[in-house]
Amino acid sequence: MSVPDLQYLMIDGHGDPNTAPAYAGAVKALYPVAYKLKFASKRNLGRDCRLVRRRG
Fold first, then answer.
1. Between vectors from CA 39 to CA 38 and to CA 42, what angle results, nearest 5°?
2. C-alpha closest to that of 12 among 2, 24, 26
3. What are the CA-CA distances from residue 55 to residues 17, 29, 31, 45, 52 (Å)?
4. Model pLDDT, residue 15
5. Cα 49 from Cα 6, distance rounded (Å)
6. Tell me, what's the pLDDT at 54?
7. CB hemisphere CA count around 51 (13 angstroms)
8. Which residues touch 25 (CB under 8 Å, ≥6 apart)?
9. Residues 10-46: tens digit of each pLDDT
10. What are phi and psi of 17, to 5 degrees?
């Protein structure tokens, strides 16, 4: 199977995401960036992308 290179935004860390303040801050910073990229892609490239919901 051949899988193409893909680019992702992600949060890397450890601990309990339900109680770690660093995780909440990272998610708070990540979502505006993700939505900006989503709408820029739709506007400039004509491609919409799906943002995956946070699990947990």
1. 90
2. 26
3. 10, 17, 14, 29, 9
4. 81
5. 13
6. 66
7. 17
8. none
9. 888 888 888 988 888 888 888 899 899 999 999 999 9
10. -65, -15
Q: How is residue 17 written in tokens?
A: 């995401």
Q: Which two tokens stand for residue 36?
A: 């900006």
Residue type (1 letter), 47 = R
The token duo for 13 is 């860390």
Structure tokens at 43: 């506007």
Burial code of 14-29, b = ≥16 C-beta within 10 A, e = fewer?
A: eeebeeeeebeebeee
Residue with tokens 């995401």: 17
Pair 5, 11: CB distance under 8 Å: no
